[in-house]
Amino acid sequence: MLREGLGAVEIVMLVVAGLASTAVVWTLLSARLERFNISAPMWFVAVGFLLVSFPSGLDVGIANEGLRQMAEIALAIVLFSDAARVNITDLRRDAGLPIRLLVVGLPLTIGLGTLVAHFVFPSLSWWVCAVIGAAVAPTDAALGAAIIEDERVPERIRRVLNVESGLNDGIATPFVKFFLVAAVAGTALEVESEGGALLELAVGVAGGAAIGFVAAWLLQRARDHGWVAASYREVGVAAVAFLGYAAVIEIGGNGFVGAFVAGIAFGAATRDELEESLAFTHDLAELASLVVWFMFGAVMLPFLRHAQWQDFLFAALALTVVRMLPVALVLIGSKLDLATVGVIGWFGPRGLASVVFALLAVEGLAPADGDRVVSIITATVLLSVVLHGATAAPISARYGATHSTV
User: What is the SS3 string spanning 225-243?
Assistant: First the structure.
């Protein structure tokens, strides 16, 4: 919906101008702001919200399908970029921890989140509460970049957080879709079968692995023969990220899983100059995520004007009890000390995936339920942006100083 007096072209130009101005000012002040633990997502969310809080004429509308697609693509390229840096040899050695967090921890988090949502919002149906529980369960690789990229933190712990956040988006997607349809139909009988969801995940893994390995092999062979112009190598790698997402969807797989697995496969099959090849993809992923944070502030944050105190109570519980209790339970017997379990539990920031699921809820639920779900998810993501962004640097420094090897 557009405000009176502005057409579609004017709205687009206003968004572009706002984004560009926000990026330029952040570039000029970033080092100084980061000293005060103000992260880039915080900045872009705040400016996006301020842009719609004044008579600027900006009103994109949350039910915009292009907005959801943009958020999904941004998430996919972030997943590929982060996954390509995972050391596959070390991952095999430490596979037990991500498996615990994904296979046992994630369903426990969704279940506990559903129970807490029903307790805090008794007027909502169980299925709507399940949508909320599943939507805020996956963690965010981009929002957790501050700790994942901090070399003071042991590489093993950073890798566990990266792999968990990379795969739990795709695993949570079938749950969210299942609960959305059930919430509307009042029954789960018409929803896609569990076998169909597992097949979608399997196709995502197989398709992503094939795309990543083949692309890496082709690029390496072309480089060996001198066919690749240096100026286009990084562009080609970024294109592989998009292919890992879009092609997997076209063959019936989970695009988020496909993008992440394609990144792991590409990184594992690339013999040399991996960091140089990924430089443009990394920058593009960061830019794409900041665009989504800007739009989150402009489009979703206004929903909090009518938020209830229960929304923020649930958000606080989602970031603490709902996340940290399942993590503590599944890591029993892992020989990790309490500080490490606490760091893994706390650094489960909610971000791009939850934003995507909120946009799906708007499309799939009745208007009243959709607005409530968006408000609750928005409160959770906003609290995560602020709390995780502000605590990442000090906790990383303190934890890294005492746990150089774990």
Answer: CCCCCHHHHHHHHHHHHHH
DSSP symbols for 94-120: TTHHHHIIIIIIHHHHHHHHHHHHHHH
Find all residues with CB under 8 Å of 95, minimum gap 6, and list them: none
Task: Assess contact for 301 and 45: CB atoms under 8 A.
Answer: yes
Retrieve residue 406's tokens.
């774990």
Q: What are phi and psi of 271, to 5 degrees?
A: -80, -40
Q: How many domains would you assign to the chain?
A: 1
**Contact status, residue 110 vs residue 127, Cβ threshold 8 Å:** no
At 104, which amino acid appears?
V
155-185 and 126-135 helices cross at what angle (nearest 10)?
160
Report if residue 62 sits inside a domain: no
Question: What is the C-alpha R_g of the chain?
Answer: 21
Residue 181 has pLDDT above 90, yes or no: no
Burial of 310 (0-12, 13-18, 19+ CB in 10 A): middle
| CATH code for the domain of 310 | 1.20.1530.20
What is the 8-class DSSP label of residue 272?
Answer: S
pLDDT digits (tens, 9 = 90+) for 113-170: 999 999 999 999 999 999 999 999 999 866 767 788 788 888 888 888 888 888 888 8
**pTM score of the predicted model:** 0.86
Evaluate whether residue 43 is within a structural domain: no
Predicted pLDDT at 1? 40
Measured distance CA(262)–CA(249) in Å, rounded: 13
Q: What is the dihedral of CA 173, 175, 178, 180, to 10 degrees?
A: -80
Express each pLDDT in 253-299 by its tens digit.
989 989 999 999 999 898 778 888 898 998 998 898 898 899 898 88
Helices (H), 65-105: 65-84, 88-93, 96-99
Angle at 249 between CA 362 and CA 163, to 5 degrees: 85
- Domain containing 85 equals 68-402
pLDDT tens for each residue of 340-390: 999 999 988 888 889 989 988 888 888 889 899 999 999 999 999 999 988
Sign of the dihedral through C-alpha 227, 231, 234, 235: negative
Residue 30 included in any domain:
no
Residue 205 lies in a domain: yes
What distance in Å separates the CA atoms of residue 32 and residue 322, rounded to the nearest whole number? 34
